[in-house]
Amino acid sequence: MKLVVVTAGLTQPSSTRLLADRLTEAVTRRLADPEAPAGPVERAVVAPRVIELRELAVDVANAFVTGFPNSRLRAAIDAVTEADGIIAVTPIFSGSYSGLFKSFFDVLDNTALAGKPVLIAATGGTARHSLALEHAVRPLFAYLRAVVVPTAVYAAAEDWGGGRDAFTDGLGERIERAAEELTDLLLHRAPSARAEQEQVVVPFEEQLAALRPPA
User: Which terms are listed as keywords in the entry (predicted)?
Assistant: First the structure.
């Protein structure tokens, strides 16, 4: 089972990466729980792959100009396309996802996320921007035909308090709830139609014969 984490934080370190790490830890902990029902999919979990979009910013821009991703960007695209589940985290700028975050998903094939479970999350300076997850980020993945978990996790600046308070505890609860929802989708979803189609290989001769006009 392959879990890919896409994080669009621009600084090093960033609260966006911190939120991505907490979500990843919560999901992998639940996937590794021996008491959790395994469902119809394989239980083996590959170490999560983290894609830092700040490292691919120039590659993404070049892909728009040339029409072709370079090898480093292609590796990231392939990882997302082949993933069983995705955690996608973006900072919120001007009431929406970051341009880098949107640009990365723009270079994906429009069928790459079809039927794929996705947990969406975001960070921002104030809780007033929390609805950006619902009016901007969720519609983006709905358009890409991903299966987005019901709980979207937003972390404002005040959520990173050092002690146990209402804000910090509330963030922890949202993280655990979203992680549980993503884990349930990963463990219980049926094999995708894409995977079933990939198992059927039609010989090239048969493909040519189908193109010939009838005698």
Answer: Flavoprotein, FMN, Oxidoreductase
